[in-house]
Write a structure and sequence with these properties.
One of its GO terms (cellular component) is SNARE complex. It contains 4 helices and no strands. It is mainly alpha-helical.
Length: 187
Amino acid sequence: MSSDFESYEQDFAVLTAEITGRIGKVPKLVGDDKKQMVANVEKQLEEARELLEQMELEVREIPSQSRGMYSSRMRSYKQEMGKLEADFKRSRIAYSDEVRNELLGDDGNSSENQRAHLLDNTERLERSSRRLEAGYQIAVETEQIGQEMLENLSHDREKIQRARERLREADANLGKSSRILTGMLRR
């Protein structure tokens, strides 16, 4: 298991290095190049988040004696991820402010705060949307499992009812047999 974790660690290191390099390029790009770079960085950030999730799953499966070391490494990776996301936001804001300042000739400190706040809110909404989608999928899967269970229970009920009918018939036949045998004994 730790070999899987170490493989994820290597992938995470390579990915974060690529992200860091691309984040540095974002403020210098213009137009479509900038949009494409931002989209690439967002994809890579999502991949890094997924790698962190995989690493967390691996840590949970590691025996508790050695889990502490891996947990501390996970905390540092999460901090690194948070720093990358913050740097990415700053690079996007810096670029937007440069363009706005060139066009308007304005320094715009308050708009930088507003823009940062809007980006934070947008990211929160996106995360919430992803969580809602995941919750919806779980609900749909749970509903399907529930339907299957109800169908199985219905089939079992039918079997039990048929068995009960057979028992009643057998009981009635035994009663008849008993009366016939009693009658034969009397004769």
